[in-house]
Each structure stands twice: as structure tokens, then as C-alpha cells.
Amino acid sequence: xxxxxxxxxxxxxxxxxxxxxxxxxxxxxxxxxxxxxxxxxxxxxxxxxxxxxxxxxxxxxxxxxxxxxxxxxxxxxxxxxxxxxxxxxxxxxxxxxxxxxxxxxxxxxxxxxxxxxxxxxxxxxxxxxxxxxxxxxxxxxxxx
Length: 144
Description:
- This protein is an all-alpha fold.
- It has one domain (27-142): Alpha Horseshoe (Serine Threonine Protein Phosphatase 5, Tetratricopeptide repeat).
- Helix content is 78%, strand content 0%.
- The protein is globular and about 40 Å long.
């Protein structure tokens, strides 16, 4: 039982600290995924990337919903930061897993961003392949 005002203050402070730690830390890896989502959504891409990097080894501990969110949000983060190869890998996996899951796992605006990023990544990859073939074709024509 609390007997003095200072004990009440310490008890209140302790309860507040424990509550804040629980809220900030989340419930394990699911809380970490939510933290990376929040950072992405407010435009803190470097912080989101750090959070994603910290979770990289925890993929097997994620449930299906958390794993889809991890792949999509971290893939979009990589895309925003210009890391096209890792963005394409994560977004392709995330899109596949999302299509097998539930629509409520991602916000419609995030699904739209994911699809646009995948289209852009696919278009650039296709145009780079064509561009790299052109010199060989041109050289062959010049030899005729």
C-alpha cells in the first residue's frame, strides 16, 4: 500500500514507465513491424530502413499479416531510398503473399504504392535489358 506522496509519485512514475515501454516496444516483432510502418507513413525513410534492418533476422517469427506488412513497407522504403534491387525482391514477395492473404492487411493507398513501384521497377528493368541489347544489334547492322 502507498503510504506517502513521494511513494505515490514513484509508483505512478514506475507504472507510467512500464506502460510507455510496452507501447513503444510493442508486442515483439509485430510491434517492430508497426513501428516501421509508422516511420514510413510519416516519411522517415531512413529510420524505417533502420527498423527494417533490425527485423531482417526475425522473418520466421512473424505471422502472415506481419510478414506481408514487413515485406511491403520495407520494400517501399527501399524503393524510396533508391535501392531498386532489394525493393523489387521484397515488393514482389510481398505482393505474392498479400494476394494470398486478406485485403485488410494493407491500406488501399499502400497497395497502390506497391503496384506502382512494381510497375516502375519492371519497366526500368525491361528498358535496361533492351538498352543493353541495342549496341550489339547496331554493331551487327554496321557490319553488313
